[in-house]
């Protein structure tokens, strides 16, 4: 009789623990889905900005130097300018379709699309890293040496992460492929995240705070590394928490992931308002 009630008690405890882990996992997934919706909106806003400011502006007679934020673009010509366009314009494709690689339903039901979109993403990602490294160190598109180190490391890590993501896909190690592909995605999008973090930082501090015009202030340097290291750390936290059996660590990870989503939201709103909308408007008004 006593043994039966002890067994019943432990079964009830197990059921409660199971339910609580299930709830925590659902909250974790919600945090990632919230981030995804915010990121997708921000990525498409960035793509719209690239297409209007770097492509459409050329057809409506706007001087590129008057509408793009980068000073180096204003002085560039010949091969360097061609490289600059080759660097920037494919970013529109990456921003429009890159996110779709993360949607499980598309991965499972439209495999050919996932495969081809992935191949294009990886190829353009490597090309973006190499042309970026050339622009920065070959064509002299940099405001300062120290301020360029974060994006330089980013340019070195992109081909490394893509190499592993591609290799694991070919070898059908899809668990490892997904992990490296997510890191490739975050590294390739660091240029977008940097703009989010920089504008978000300005918004939260109501102006510059540790920033300067050559982007080598302490805050600029911190953000130039954080724009890929922080999202990559959050991705690792997510992968780790998916393996947890108890609810407590999953709840902790979920709270951190929600903070990550909030930072992305502040960044998207700030970059859209301060960086992209005014330039998009300039082009639209010239149409
Ligand atoms: C695949 C990853 C990358 C993508 C998708 C990408 C995309 C872009 C885009 C869209 C712009 C124009 C930004 C704007 O108007 O606000 C830009 C500018 C620039 N990128 Fe990249 N980029 C990538 C990686 C890199 C790397 C690794 C470097 C250098 C090591 C780099 C160096 C530059 C430079 C020098 C500029 C122009 C000046 C500036 O805004 O700082 N990019 N990139």
General description of the model:
- This is DUF2306 domain-containing protein.
- It comes from Planctobacterium marinum.
- Keywords: Membrane, Transmembrane, Transmembrane helix.
- The chain crosses the membrane at residues 35-61, 81-99, 120-140, 146-166, 178-201, 221-239, 251-277.
- With 287 residues, the protein is mainly α.
- It has one domain.
- Helix content is 83%, strand content 0%.
- Helix 1 (2-59) runs antiparallel to helix 5 (90-97), helix 8 packs antiparallel against helix 9 (174-188) and helix 11 (218-242) packs across helix 12.
- It is globular.
- It starts with a helix and ends with a helix.
- Residues 50, 68-70, 72, 87-88, 91, 94, 125, 128-129, 132-133, 135-136, 141, 151-152, 154-155, 158, 188, 191, 195 line the site of protoporphyrin IX containing FE.
What's the gist of this structure?
The chain has helices at residues 2-59, 64-67, 71-75, 78-88, 90-97, 104-109, 111-138, 149-170, 174-188, 190-204, 218-242, 247-286. The chain is mostly helical and 287 residues long.
What's the helix-strand series? Answer: HHHHHHHHHHHH
Q: Residue ranges: pLDDT <50 for 5 or more in a row? A: none
Number of strands: 0
Residues in helix, % = over 70%
Query: Beta-strand level of the residues, as a percent range?
Result: under 5%
The Rg value, from CA coordinates, equals: 22 Å
Q: What's the number of domains? A: 1
Separation, N- and C-terminal Cα atoms: 84 Å
SS field, number of helical segments? 12
Give the integer mean of the pLDDT values.
95
Structural class given helices, strands, pairing? mainly alpha
What ligand molecules are bound, each kind once?
protoporphyrin IX containing FE
Protein name: DUF2306 domain-containing protein
Organism: Planctobacterium marinum
Keywords: Membrane, Transmembrane, Transmembrane helix
Transmembrane segments: 35-61, 81-99, 120-140, 146-166, 178-201, 221-239, 251-277
